UniProtKB/TrEMBL annotation:
Keyword Methyltransferase belongs to the record: yes
Lineage, top ranks: Bacteria, Bacillati, Actinomycetota, Actinomycetes, Mycobacteriales
Protein name: Methyltransferase domain-containing protein
Entry superkingdom: Bacteria
Pfam families named in the record: Methyltransf_23
SUPFAM superfamilies linked: S-adenosyl-L-methionine-dependent methyltransferases
Length: 294
């Protein structure tokens, strides 16, 4: 009886992790209020730190499996894919390799759009290293809004790149216009869940706008009148609790100052959940939006 009361007192005195996390986030918000924006991530190290981040998460595998399943349902004729914000091509090369393995000889055309030259060069290198004559690949070094494309595609895909466009509705309309009738638009974007609540507080603005999360993307689809065939969430987890400063910076999309790193790490510990193996991981969900050009 007495022991039970003590337990009750202890549990009342210790706020649940969600309250601790909310307080830590508020503290960070207060610390940043009115301060000069933190430096953005540098193009030269972005792809490297992104790759290190993905190695700590099971999200990349879930995305690859989901998109490979969709590609497998698109017949066995020639296929053309536009990957907007293709980065270093690690995901696209994996998908292209899967297409070649499933139907050797099937012509696959891959076009990347990527504003950062180093990442764009890696995209071409990765596609070439598939050594598959049926795969043709090229990349345009440009932001999506600035690229001029004179061909139509079966698929236009944005994997974690819609955050950065100036206007989501404009980008969605432009992407739809690049699809053949029956072609599919796929947008994979993160919600503003535990991890991206940090991005929202810490990341510097992108060309005068904040990063766009899934709610913004969903609203933009509705605003421009593009009907969604599907919107699903892939629930992933990322192991960020003992990561390097570089990966921590990638996770929050800003170059952190040394004094911000401890509170950021404390927040990540507070939002972590138990994984199947008993370790603590940070939720890392991604939403998949799919529309068809009719
Ligand atoms: C998180 S990475 C994703 C890369 C790749 N899609 C993947 O999943 O591995 C986001 C990419 O979007 C690119 N990006 C940023 N702004 C962009 C824009 N306005 N148009 C197209 N791509 C952009 C970045 O350079 C970066 O390579």
């Amino acid at each position: 009886m007495c022991r039970g009361s003590l337990d009750l007192v202890t549990s009342l005195a210790t706020p649940p992790p969600t309250e601790i996390a909310a307080d830590l986030l508020d503290d960070l918000r207060t610390a940043r209020r009115g301060a000069v924006a933190l430096p953005a991530l540098e193009p030269a190290t972005y792809a490297r730190d992104h790759a290190a981040f993905e190695l700590l998460s099971d999200q990349r595998g879930l995305i690859a499996g989901h998109l490979a399943g969709r590609l497998a349902g698109m017949g066995d004729g020639p296929l053309s894919i536009l990957s907007v914000g293709c980065g270093d091509g690690s995901l696209d090369a994996r998908l292209a390799a899967g297409l070649v393995a499933a139907a050797p000889g099937r012509p696959v055309r891959y076009v990347g759009v990527e504003p950062w030259e180093g990442s764009a060069a890696l995209f071409v290198e990765r596609m070439s290293s598939l050594d598959a004559p049926e795969v043709s690949a090229e990349v345009h070094v440009a932001a999506f809004a600035d690229v001029s494309l004179d061909e139509m595609f079966d698929v236009v895909v944005f994997v974690h790149s819609m955050y950065y466009v100036a206007d989501v509705g404009t980008a969605l309309r432009a992407a739809l216009a690049l699809l053949r009738p029956g072609g599919e638009l796929w947008v994979l974007n993160a919600p503003k869940a535990a991890l991206n609540a940090l991005v929202d507080v810490l990341a510097p603005p992108q060309e005068n706008h904040r990063q766009w999360f899934s709610a913004d993307v969903g609203e933009a689809f509705a605003d421009v009148g593009i009907i969604l065939e599907e919107a699903v969430t892939l629930d992933a987890l990322v192991d960020l609790l003992a990561t390097t400063d570089e990966v921590l910076d990638f996770a929050v999309q800003a170059r952190l100052t040394p004094e911000l790193r401890d509170p950021v790490r404390a927040y990540l510990r507070a939002v972590a959940v138990p994984a199947r193996d008993g370790s603590s991981r940070v939720p890392h969900p991604v939403d998949v939006f799919r529309a068809i050009r009719h």
